[in-house]
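Appendix C reproduces, verbatim, an entry submitted by the partner laboratory led by Prof. M.T., so that reviewers can inspect both the input and the predicted structure.
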Amino acid sequence: MANHRLVTLTWIFTEKFGLIFLSMITFVAYARLLSPAELGVGTVIIAIVELIGLVYSSVLEDPLVRLERLEDKHISTAFWASVLVSLVSIVVISVAVMLYTPDPLLRWLTAVASVKILFTMMARVYVAQMRRSGDFKTLASRTLLGKVVGGVGGIAVALWGLGAWAVVAQALLMEFVSIIVLMRADPRRIAFYIDRPFLRELLKAGAPVAINALSSQTLQRGVNVVLGMTAGVNAVGMFNMAMRIIELPRTAIYNGLLSYALPAFARRSAEPLRLLGILGDSTAVSGFLLTPLFIGLALTANDLILLIFGAKWAEAIPLLQVLACTAAIGNTAMYATTALVAVNRSHLTIKAEVATTVLALALVYGFGTFYGGMAAALALLTRMLIITPLQIRGLNAAIGYGWRRYFDSNYRSVIASLVMAATVLYVSPQLGLQGYLHLVCNIVVGALSYAVAYSVMHPRWPQEFKSVFTTR
């Protein structure tokens, strides 16, 4: 059992860290080949399309994973309902953009990008089945292959000088290759059949999950749209540059951990003490890895932006620092939504999620004209400071995960990260170094100081962290 768990996690993180590496290549290429305005246009369009696809996906995928038995009629219902909704959405989006703008480029970009919804939704039943069976090897293969093909295609389009089409081409190629790989791995014929009672149950169970996902993802995709409306595409490009640096590691690592955590939490949903134990341990392990990573990104933001991406992106430096601190705070309660889904209590935080999302978007809309991308960064920070306590309150009501457990899981990584930050800020000016050597030395000093500080507080952390993956 322990070996199977480790193999599963190995494949999950092979996929996710492979995505980081491949995404960095394409991201650097786009930063060099595209202007901030071109990157901004492509980002806004894909953000709209992905937001719609995410809402649909959330309604279906997690509830399918939670089912005790997944029968053929369930698969047929979910698959064909997804296809029909996707086709209608493509038509609606295409008509809406024709009415919204006379610009033929924007019309074609949006209409073509909307096809991504169809590919995304067709994949949901396959992904749900493979998550249930633990076939993360196939899931990793389809994602990595899609990323390679999409990245090559996107860079080729950028080299041809087609601007925002590069972002759209990459997104479409990734999803198309992904669904082809999944269908070849599971070549079953899905009969055209929709079980209406089951579809209603699925929608009822998935609605709270979708609302939470919509609230969360609106901040990543909707903020780009609102920022574009108020501050222009150049501000979107700067904000997206900073956000992408944060999202590359966060999305890859979070998605890997959460895709494993949901079925693991769901299996323990009837045993509160075991669920509390794995939730606390998972938070501690994640905090050990991710909190210093995000604080480190804030400390090295100046070198990262200027050395890797160039001086034209200098305005993104303070945005990256604020967003990195926001991510570090969010890491302390990263499993909250997943744990609530596992015990079917996700409704407890719906109002908080929606209200804080509306607040963040209102802040961007109100201050975007004056402060540009910084308005969006500070809006996300404000939202995180408000939503985290509300998530802990929801967890406490659902499973008894209160403030004491929250602090027990996080205080070591937070204190060690603050020690790391103080050490780097003190030592860095004394080094007298410049360029990549300065960046590398800061990373080394930060890693060593963090390791020492954490080990002083928790000398037996290697043995305890190993037990998370082998004994529970």
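The radius of gyration is 22 Å. Additional entries are available on request from the coordinating office.
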